[in-house]
Write a structure and sequence with these properties.
There is one protein chain. The protein is mostly helical. A hairpin with a 2-residue loop joins strand 1 and strand 2. It starts with 6 loop residues before the first helix and ends with a strand.
């Protein structure tokens, strides 16, 4: 587990993990946390009921697992991320 994450990074990982269309590989690319590490972080940071709901929601979800995605489905980018690069707001 990457213990060097700031509270802000932990909040962002949790937010990305809850997003339906953000794959675990995107979290790994940005924060260096593989899927089992994200699961452990979620288990540690969420209330037990919230963690169970999250696990039920993402387990087997094709959009969270790149290997399960439909062919041709590319990376999702929210309209709100237009001015964000690597999840850091640009300074314009």
């Amino acid at each position: 587990m990457n213990d060097s994450l700031s509270l802000r990074d932990i909040d962002r990982v949790i937010e990305m993990a809850w997003e339906d269309r953000t794959p675990f590989s995107a979290i790994e690319f940005q924060f260096g946390l593989a899927e089992p590490e994200v699961i452990e972080l979620m288990r540690r940071e969420l209330k037990p009921g919230s963690f169970k709901r999250w696990r039920a929601r993402v387990q087997g979800r094709s959009t969270k697992h790149r290997a399960l995605r439909q062919e041709g489905m590319t990376r999702f980018k929210s309209d709100n991320q237009r001015t964000i690069s690597h999840n850091r707001k640009s300074k314009d």
